[in-house]
Design brief:
This protein is α/β, with parallel strands linked by helices. The protein contains 8 helices and 7 strands. It has one domain (55-239, 261-294): Rossmann fold. The radius of gyration is 30 Å and the shape is globular.
Length: 304
């Protein structure tokens, strides 16, 4: 009777092919060390902020801020200046004081000829124009039923048509220069949450958001166009509108972050969009409103 050869003389069995859909055969091979995982794009370290950050530096850039002599506009102008930009502000009348490092020229941007002229003035002074901030705007509180035709026309002209006039002139310059440029429109939360007495103003600011998106499409890639929608902002000009300190505190309590915005908050948003960090952002509407407004049912249930 034949017998098998000694085990030591047996050739090793051939490796079994791996079956599709089944588990692999048990192998005595040594386990391989786990391979490191490499994400497609490694996470970037956090960037520092402030003038020492190259990504936020605007050195060599030239900016025009309409309505930049007080309030939000002045805060924006000062923030751009502090980060290295040369800044020209405009208004209808000479301000009592112009901060150091900021230049002034008079212009009524509601007039298309004056809008074009102030853009040309910026180019004459600085040799180029990289950033335009359409900040001039505002409106008295007037019931829609009694608003005159002249008032409605004036409000729309200041808050929608004037930014359009400035943007057209700025685009002509930016399209022909190295690096293109940025147009920033300052909007209002009234565009998305209108209040009584603001019908014309709210409609104009809503139109400004749409204008931003339309121009971003037409003027790309040389020119970026964005909107910063400001929420409830406390300034020297509007403090009386809300009432005394107790009334201001009640208004602040409606904001999820617990306070009204300051002009510096809006200026910081503009600085972000003007920096290289926002180089791929265009046609955006950045809402800076502290989280919006607490719903009334929440306040009724829990109290302010």
């Amino acid at each position: 009777m034949a017998t098998d050869p000694p085990a030591s003389h047996q050739p090793p069995p051939p490796a079994s092919p791996r079956r599709r859909g089944g588990p692999p055969p048990v192998s005595p091979r040594r386990a391989e060390p786990p391979q490191p995982q490499h994400p497609a794009q490694p996470p970037q370290p956090p960037r520092p902020t402030g003038p020492s950050d190259p990504a936020a530096e605007l050195s060599g850039r030239a900016a025009l801020v309409t309505g930049g002599t007080r309030g939000i506009g002045l805060a924006i102008a000062e923030r751009l200046r502090d980060h290295g930009a040369r800044v020209l502000v405009c208004g209808r009348s000479q301000p009592g004081r112009v901060p150091d490092g900021i230049e002034f020229a008079a212009a009524d941007v509601r007039d298309p000829d004056q809008a074009a002229a102030i853009v040309g003035e910026a180019v004459t002074r600085f040799g180029r124009l990289d950033i335009v901030v359409n900040n001039a705007g505002g409106s008295p509180s007037v019931p829609a039923a009694s608003a005159s035709a002249n008032l409605i026309t004036s409000v729309v002209r200041l808050n929608l048509l004037a930014p359009f006039f400035i943007a057209q002139a700025a685009n002509t310059v930016m399209q022909g220069q190295d690096g293109g440029g940025l147009i920033l429109n300052i909007g209002s939360v009234s565009a998305i949450r209108p209040a009584p007495g603001t019908a014309a103003y709210a409609a104009a600011k809503a139109g400004l958001v749409t204008l931003t998106q339309a121009l971003a499409i037409e003027w790309a890639p040389a020119v970026r166009v964005n909107c910063v929608t400001a929420g409830l902002v406390r300034t020297d000009d509007n403090a009386a509108h809300y009432g005394d300190e107790q009334a201001l505190a009640a208004v602040a309590a409606t904001v999820p972050l617990g306070r009204m915005a300051s002009p510096a908050d809006i200026a910081d948003a503009c600085l972000l969009l003007a920096s290289p960090l926002a180089g791929y952002i265009s046609g955006a509407n950045l809402v800076v409103d502290g989280g919006g407004q607490r719903p009334l049912f929440v306040t009724a249930r829990t109290g302010p």
